[in-house]
Amino acid sequence: MSAPLPVTAVAFLARASQLGLFSAETLILLDRGVATSAIGLVMAAAAAGGALAQLAASRWGHHGRTTRMTLLGTGVQSAGCLAFATLTPWWSLAAADFLLMAGAALTATGLRATLAAHAPDGRAPGADQLERAYGRLTAAQMLGALVGPLGAGAVLLHGGTAWAAWAATAVALTATAVAGTADRRDRAPASHPGSRPSASASASASASASASEKLPAPALPEPSAGPPSALLGTLWPPLVLLFGITALYGGYSVVWAVYLRELGARNALIAWSAACLALPALVLSPRAGAVLPRVSRQTRIRCAALALGCCACLYPLVGSVAAAVAVSLAEGVLLAVALPLVSAQVARDAGPGRTARAFGFLGTADALGSGLGTALGGALLAQGGAAEAFRFSGVLCLLCAAASLIAVPASSPPSAPSSPSSSETGRSPHVSRSSARIRPVRR
Q: Rounded to an integer, what distance in angstroms lies between the CA atom of residue 315 and that of residue 201?
């Protein structure tokens, strides 16, 4: 099982647009006169948009096609990029960030759900297949995360901060075009229900019909979504781990550019430094399942989250740009292991019929963690500087790794009413209920 080409293409383009703009966003806001205390508010609006979009996807995502959700996400992301390129007040930039992140969240959820439904011969994919498929999806996203900041840095060198948003808009529109083509192809088989079948199809249909008359196949129950609380209890460990990781990088999104500028880095280097996270993940993500295969998936994710929290606490002790970039490269290796395993774990635990809702919950945890990290990172940056923001983000990630050890009971659906016992009915337990009642014979 491999990721289809449209899925990887949209993943690459959407992430390149998103992170290309985010890598230069702080510089754009500073050049437009936005105060340092308001930068966190602008980016918190982006996290709020992502959280609301993921809540909507978890509630209604299973009612429609996953390709339609991807198309909607890329369209909303394009609108957010265009608004960010044309508007100047900080509150309008916050609204543009809201749209941009809402679209990116819908796109990511649609791509994950599409990949979970792409099983050969209608069979459920195995654990190894899921890990490889989501590894390739993560590699495509990380390739976009590598190309986007590199392109943004080149634009900053030659055109300034104003052109970075326009470049992100063009890439997002290209992703929308690819997603629209994929949605039309997905809709094409359903749009011709009355097409005349071929002779071979008719023969196979008649053969299957005769076979079904001889031996009726057992009726399989339709997969149901089940109560959301039961699914949340099942997915608690990967959800809280992803929450801690995204809270960590939500704080980074506010602090990183200011931190490197204080160390003496130039604007282009600040934008290019965002690629340090993407480069290791691009190479290692397709092989994430091969790292320590004898260790359970949750243990590997948890160890990666613990190491990421420790790396965040190291940044206040670093005094050079080269050392900061080296620590960022190490974090990229950890992310390359953790992120594909989180997606594979969620798809495996959710089961058939619940993947869209499960990835909606996963995206909600992603957006809420990013929003919390962004808001608190901006507040701590204004109050105590970058060092305090890094320490808080690292400690929060460590606490989330510890919270993933807590077992959350999943609420079971209401049980069927119990049948009366044999003593209440007077029927022997060895006689089935459908058996005819034996009446005494009168002589």
A: 64
